[in-house]
Design goal:
Blueprint lengths: L4 E6 L5 H17 L5 E5 L3 H9 L6 E6 L10 H13 L4 E4 L8 H16 L7 E6 L5 H18 L3 E5 L7 H10 L5 E5 L6 H12 L4 E2 L7 H15 L12
Parallel strand pairs: 1-2, 1-3, 3-4, 5-6, 5-7, 7-8
Helix pairs in contact: 1-8, 2-3
Protein name: Cobalamin biosynthesis protein CbiX
Length: 250
């Protein structure tokens, strides 16, 4: 019996840097698990993504794995939309939905590594506050985990840490940085818990820098950990199992 195709669903539109990151993660998976066919799709363009996947007539079963770092339980709406469009285009296709990768403590180490590199390149001498930045606030469980991660990050660095996202309002990165500066914090750094570079992330960076941030780290990008988690979510969905809670991963 042929294994289902593993489809990495990137939380982005199919832009240059996002596409490169997606292909690199896919290639990493294909190298480690050559017996599993892999593909990529983008939740920011459901019509095109569904059309491309539906065109593969030889495929009979897919597992969509959301490469999302803010949702722990509920699937992001764009992933549901992609699945619905695909089901409409190929009623004969068996589609299973994996759980999102979700936020987890292990991601803080990846954010730290990228932030250290960014501060080194910017010749930043002092940091007195941190912002943990995400594309959105996630689902209920994801938001709770993000709050926990901000506290862990604060304890680790002995600095105040605030959460920011791209959803607008008081939680938007420019508002968060502005508030920190009003509190007397003059050397703010932003750690990006985003999967890949895209237009939204670049606008996020522009807003952060415009508000007085000294440095913003790059997104997580192509990292072995994301590939590992994606395969775990794939296996769980393919076998009809429930994956371990990412919050238990160190």
């Amino acid at each position: 019996m042929t294994a289902p195709v593993l489809v990495l669903v990137m939380p982005s539109t199919p832009e240059g840097p996002a596409t490169i990151t997606a292909h690199r993660i896919r290639q990493r998976l294909a190298k480690i698990h050559p017996h599993i066919e892999t593909a990529i799709a983008f939740s920011g363009n459901a019509d095109e993504g569904a059309a491309r996947l539906a065109a593969k007539q030889e495929w009979t079963e897919l597992v969509l794995v959301p490469m999302d770092l803010t949702h722990l339980h509920d699937l992001p709406e764009p992933v549901h939309e992609l699945s619905d469009r695909l089901a409409g285009a190929r009623p004969d296709l068996s589609i299973r939905l994996g759980r999102p990768l979700g936020p987890a403590p292990a991601l803080l180490g990846l954010v730290d590594t990228r932030l250290r590199l960014a501060t080194h390149r910017a010749h930043t001498q002092e940091i007195d506050a941190l912002v943990l930045s995400t594309p959105d606030a996630g689902d209920k469980r994801g938001a709770a985990m993000l709050s926990r991660l901000s506290r862990m990050w604060s304890q680790h660095h002995r600095l105040p840490v605030r959460l920011a996202n791209d959803a607008g309002g008081a939680g938007h990165v420019d508002e968060v940085v502005h508030t920190l500066r009003l509190e007397g914090r003059r050397h703010v750094a932003v750690g990006s818990m985003w999967v890949c570079e895209n237009t939204a992330w670049h606008e996020h960076v522009r807003c952060a820098m415009g508000a007085g941030t000294e440095v913003v780290s790059s997104p997580i990008g192509d990292d072995p950990l994301l590939a590992e988690w994606a395969f775990e979510r794939y296996c769980s969905a393919a076998m009809g199992l429930v994956a371990d809670d990412p919050g238990t991963e160190a």
